[in-house]
């Protein structure tokens, strides 16, 4: 099964204070893909003035955290999880494929 990058941008701009623009992403602990994705997202969001914070969890817990809305998104995820998590929107991008 190939990994596809999933960037979940659950940004509700009205809820952001102009002084505090921080998005929280979950990442899979001890994953090289998490390291790569964090670097890319950190740099990309910095260009638009948004900081990111990454919280690392085991794979299933990372998915549960984003599915429950406890984080703004995931650094990456394998594909075809929409049936189990219909509220999560997969945004396929080839950052670390």
Features:
97 residues; alpha/beta; 3-stranded antiparallel β-sheet; 3-stranded parallel β-sheet; 2 helices; globular; disordered N terminus
In short:
The protein has helices at 32-46, 59-67; strands spanning 3-6, 22-28, 51-57, 73-74, 77-78, 92-93. The protein has 97 residues and is of the alpha/beta class.
Description:
The protein is an alpha/beta fold and 97 residues long. Helices cover 25% and strands 25% of the residues. It contains two helices and six strands. The strands form two sheets. The protein has a three-stranded antiparallel sheet, with no helix packed on it. Helix 1 links the parallel strand 2 and strand 3. The longest helix has 15 residues. The chain is globular, with a radius of gyration of 13 Å.
Total number of beta strands: 6
Beta-strand share of residues: 15-25%
- Overall, the morphology is globular
- How much helix is in the residues? 10-25%
| Sheet of most strands | 3 strands, antiparallel
Number of helices: 2
Indicate the mean pLDDT.
77
Order of helices and strands: EEHEHEEE
